[in-house]
């Protein structure tokens, strides 16, 4: 079984065969997504990236295309069910606009395809993307990260990421205390 999904920054994955470097690809895509953005906006960037992923998972990246799809579905439904075309005035009603608005409010938890085996894999992948994005930049002492290892100063509590070869002994740039693995 195969199901290709698109994610922000041009990423495409088969949810049944995620690559071994999936987390690294997500991390790099998020790093590119936030390039040039002030650190003060980190949480906004994280939520924005996740929201953008939600839009991609629902094929809802273009509002005009979503409305066109709703109109076409309404025409097809009336033609199939009743053998008649939908009256154009039905699209100028509050009811249609409310339905379009509700369908546009897509959730992360959803029935993306109607097949629970595929939907479960999509949700599993989405949770993994969220975990990678939310942990981005959160250095954890002693853990190897994509850019090196995170060290935590025992004196002031600040974190520092150093390259693999430089990890034996460092001095905290904040307080000057010696930091070691």
Main attributes?
181 residues; alpha+beta; 2 domains; three-stranded antiparallel β-sheet; two-stranded antiparallel ribbon; 44% helix; 14% strand; elongated
Folded structure, characterized:
The protein is α+β, with helices and mostly antiparallel strands. It folds into 2 domains: 136 residues, no CATH class; 42 residues, no CATH class. It is 44% helix and 14% strand. The protein contains 5 helices and 7 strands, in the order E-E-H-H-H-H-H-E-E-E-E-E. It has a 3-stranded antiparallel beta sheet with strand order 3-4-5, with no helix packed on it. It has a two-stranded antiparallel sheet with strand order 1-2. Strand 3 and strand 4 form a beta hairpin. Helix 1 crosses helix 5 and helix 2 packs antiparallel against helix 5. About 4% of the residues have low confidence.
Overall geometry comes to: elongated
Radius of gyration: 23 Å
Q: Give, in spatial order, the strands making up the sheet with the most strands.
A: 3-4-5
Low-confidence stretches: 139-146
Order of helices and strands: EEHHHHHEEEEE
- Number of separate structural domains: 2
What is the CA-CA span between the terminal residues? 44 Å
Task: Give a short overview.
The protein is 44% helix and 14% strand. The chain has 181 residues and is an alpha+beta fold.
Topology:
Elements: E1 4-7, E2 11-14, H1 22-33, H2 42-57, H3 63-82, H4 94-104, H5 116-135, E3 144-145, E4 148-152, E5 159-162, E6 169-171, E7 178-180
Antiparallel strand pairs: 1-2, 3-4, 4-5, 6-7
Helix pairs in contact: 1-5, 2-5
